[in-house]
Design a protein that fits this description.
Blueprint (H helix, E strand, L loop, with lengths): L35 H14 L8 E2 L1 H8 L3 H13 L3 E4 L3 E4 L4 H25 L2 H19 L3 H19 L2 H8 L2 H15 L2 H17 L2 H28 L1
Antiparallel strand pairs: 1-3, 2-3
Helix pairs in contact: 1-3, 4-6, 4-7, 4-9, 4-10, 5-6, 5-9, 6-8, 6-9, 8-10, 9-10
Length: 247
């Protein structure tokens, strides 16, 4: 296992940008009422998922607090949340380590994710209000535009926005908590391997199909769209495993 000093985050995008409707949530302040802990979590989650904090990197509360200009208590709370999600490992007396990526564990995760995603898609289609349905349409368009421009960071941010909106509109806190433990690991896995085996336009279309099915209010169509997306993610994960074996 390799250990590195925490990387410098200087020059990264500011934390207080507010996106336009249908655009990715560039900063934690885009969420009304976001706490400092929320801001720290969202910033660190993106840095880890997009490999700017790579697996094996050692993090310290003091360095992160300085780089992100956020106090140590919110940083500590964010790191504890990331540990629950499996993105970091807190090692007593040794520090905080960005977790390694395990392909086989990803396949186990997908077994659970498929069932919960379908349930949440159906619930969201039934329970979303008109404003939320408009937001689903905007996200779908944004993801397709990001894919057309090969803008992986914007795509990732919109993917997170879609996950959050589905969780909110499903109105089921138990399913939302379960999915919250899986989405970040899934996004990081995708980001690591997508250039080798993924079809970004196809991935964007399947996400957009899901968003539009939910917006349309048809629970069964939303369930089918969710299954199609999970089928693609399963194929992508297995192709990633095959590529790794090939090396």
């Amino acid at each position: 296992m390799n250990f590195f000093n925490v990387v410098s985050l200087q020059g990264e995008e500011p934390l207080n940008e507010t996106p336009e409707a249908g655009r990715p949530e560039d900063g934690p302040d885009a969420v009304p009422g976001a706490t400092l802990s929320d801001r720290a979590y969202r910033r660190l989650e993106e840095l880890i998922v997009t490999l700017r904090l790579a697996p094996g990197t050692v993090l310290t509360e003091s360095s992160l607090a300085k780089e992100l200009d956020i106090g140590r208590t919110p940083i500590r709370e964010a790191l504890q949340r990331l540990a629950r999600e499996g993105l970091v490992v807190i090692l007593p007396r040794r520090g905080i380590l960005v977790s390694e990526i395990n392909v086989r564990n990803q396949l186990k995760l997908l077994e659970v994710r498929r069932e919960i995603e379908r349930l949440m898609a159906k619930a969201a289609a039934q329970r979303a209000d008109d404003t939320e349905r408009d937001a689903f349409h905007a996200i779908a368009e944004g993801m397709e535009n990001a894919a057309a421009e090969s803008d992986d960071i914007t795509f990732m941010r919109l993917d997170r926005q879609l996950n959050m909106l589905v969780s909110e509109t499903a109105r089921n806190e138990f399913a939302s908590r379960a999915m919250g433990l899986m989405h970040s690991l899934s996004r990081r896995f995708w980001y690591v391997h997508y250039k080798e085996v993924a079809d970004l336009p196809l991935c964007a279309r399947l996400h957009a199909d899901l968003a539009r099915a939910i917006a349309g209010g048809d629970a069964e169509s939303a369930a089918r769209a969710s299954d199609q997306l999970m089928n693609y993610i399963d194929r992508f994960t297995r192709a990633s495993l095959d590529a790794k074996r090939g090396h």
